[in-house]
Amino acid sequence: NAGVTQTPKFQVLKTGQSMTLQCAQDMNHNSMYWYRQDPGMGLRLIYYSASEGTTDKGEVPNGYNVSRLNKREFSLRLESAAPSQTSVYFCASSESGRAVGYTFGSGTRLTVV
Amino acid sequence: AQTVTQSQPEMSVQEAETVTLSCTYDTSESDYYLFWYKQPPSRQMILVIRQEAYKQQNATENRFSVNFQKAAKSFSLKISDSQLGDAAMYFCAYRRGGSEKLVFGKGTKLTVNP
């Protein structure tokens, strides 16, 4: 099915470890996003990419890096994981210039111990 | 900065009844879009309904409708004939025209009682 694919779905890390969350979309969308979801906090934007080759910080970028590898793929990297980064992470994509809402991936539940 | 407020952390409704979820937003823009997303226990985010600010007519999608009060900056979601499958977290979201970013409220957890 067309959509946004995130991997992995679940991950447990030890404090200080690094990892990359992968995201790919096959809808030819220009814009891609990474959000984190925490209880009682809603979804908060970490980073976004309005087009291939560009990335911008969102509301909570500290501790994360991103790479827009090509039009399809947008990865999120945690260089040195901290317990405060325990969260559910969502990747999303959308068409540029049209407020049609996002298409979301199924999320990654990350636990940092 | 734009903010989205959902004042009801939790709501409950009896099956087949009607429930309204509240959302208010703060913006000085005239061009913007509003959305309601549903997140069932599966965690998947599903777009329920969207509303363009320039449209006076309230959006409707089957049993879901909105009450868009632009002057009051209010965007409530009405679910009619509630079903067990409507049980989920519901998020209100705002997007300024020309912006790539979607700003979410903190969500309302809806329980549907049989």
Structure description:
The complex is a heterodimer of chains A (113) and B (114). Chain A is mainly beta. In chain A, 0% of the residues lie in helices and 51% in strands. In chain A, a hairpin with a 3-residue loop joins strand 4 and strand 5. The relative contact order of chain A is 0.33. In chain B, strands 2, 5, 6, 10, 11 and 12 form a six-stranded mixed beta sheet that branches. In chain B, a hairpin with a 2-residue loop joins strand 7 and strand 8. The mean pLDDT of chain B is 94. Chains A and B meet through strand 4, strand 5 and strand 9 of A and strand 5, strand 6, strand 10 and strand 11 of B.
Question: What layout of secondary structure does this protein have?
Answer:
The complex is a heterodimer of chains A (113) and B (114).
Chain A: E1 4-7, E2 10-13, E3 19-25, E4 31-38, E5 42-49, E6 56-57, E7 64-68, E8 74-78, E9 87-94, E10 103-104, E11 108-112
Parallel strand pairs in A: 2-11
Antiparallel strand pairs in A: 1-3, 3-8, 4-5, 4-9, 5-6, 7-8, 9-10, 9-11
Chain B: E1 3-5, E2 10-14, E3 19-21, E4 24-26, E5 32-39, E6 46-52, E7 60-61, E8 64-69, E9 74-79, E10 88-96, E11 103-104, E12 108-113
Parallel strand pairs in B: 2-12
Antiparallel strand pairs in B: 1-4, 3-9, 5-6, 5-10, 7-8, 8-9, 10-11, 10-12
